[in-house]
């Protein structure tokens, strides 16, 4: 496996791969890898000839009071994990390489970014779409892989690729969870032992919502109220949002039908975690 830390070097390798007729799979990450990231690498290995994992903590998707400076970083650890999962290249450019002095071009997907995490993290998705658009241009992947845990992000990226005729297939892969149901996240490392237990309320409240739906409940208001009640019952938890939206336009629905995304963001202590589930075939 190669570690590439400059855009020119990455671009040169891409030209070689393309000349050789090799397909490229891209797994964009911010590092501090876990099984969720590695599952994307394994999927990419099955579908493409060369798997590139980007590791870049993107400053422009963090708000002024968010955790950019303390976001966990361990490139050596990540190299070992990525290699074990089958990655061929780690692309890990510097901030100055990605955003040199005078940088002033941004990509913004409207409408889809106005709610959910977009409402509570202004500017976040403009940062995400900008860096992913740059990665797409540099790596020129045939397929790029994202996890359902970041469902809004995946839907936004898919829309960007379609609208800008990028010719890249976006594959959204299932959320990978710990044995007790907690969605894997690099930010889980911030949790204390007690907070780690409290964080199970995210998955628990989603399971409760699914149970209500299976029992015939279709009123969004009642389901959200049940989620809110579970979150409020945990002392260290503070709800950012709980919402039920369609999976195409991310519009809130009063009555559930078709395919719906149930998404929530919760602060456990000072750590903001997200989770979601998709329910299908609702009538």
Features:
six-stranded parallel sheet, 9 strands, Rossmann fold, three-stranded antiparallel sheet, Pantoate--beta-alanine Ligase, Chain: A,domain 2, alpha/beta, 283 residues
> Span between N and C termini?
49 Å
What is the second-level CATH architecture of the largest domain?
A: 3-Layer(aba) Sandwich
Number of helices: 10
CATH fold field value of the largest domain: Rossmann fold
Number of domains: 2
> What is the ordering of alpha helices and beta strands?
EHEHEHEHHHEHEHHHEEE
Cα radius of gyration in angstroms: 19 Å
Give the strand line-up of the largest sheet.
1-4-3-2-5-6
Structural class: alpha/beta
- How much of the sequence lies in strands comes to 15-25%
Count the strands? Answer: 9
CATH H-level superfamily of the largest domain: HUPs
Please bin the fraction of helical residues.
25-40%
Residue windows where pLDDT falls under 50 for at least 5 positions: none
Main beta sheet, described? 6 strands, parallel
Write a structural description:
- The protein is globular and about 55 Å long.
- The mean pLDDT is 97.
- The chain has helices at residues 7-19, 35-47, 75-85, 95-98, 117-120, 124-139, 151-163, 193-198, 200-214, 220-232; strands spanning 2-4, 24-29, 50-55, 89-91, 143-147, 169-173, 237-246, 258-268, 271-282.
- It folds into 2 domains: 2-173, Rossmann fold (3-Layer(aba) Sandwich); 186-277, Pantoate--beta-alanine Ligase, Chain: A,domain 2.
- Helix 6 crosses helix 7.
- It contains 10 helices and 9 strands.
- Helix content is 38%, strand content 22%.
- Strand 5, helix 7 (151-163) and strand 6 form a beta-alpha-beta unit.
- With 283 residues, the chain is of the alpha/beta class.
- The strands form 2 sheets. It has a 6-stranded parallel β-sheet, sandwiched between helices. Strands 7-8-9 form a 3-stranded antiparallel β-sheet.
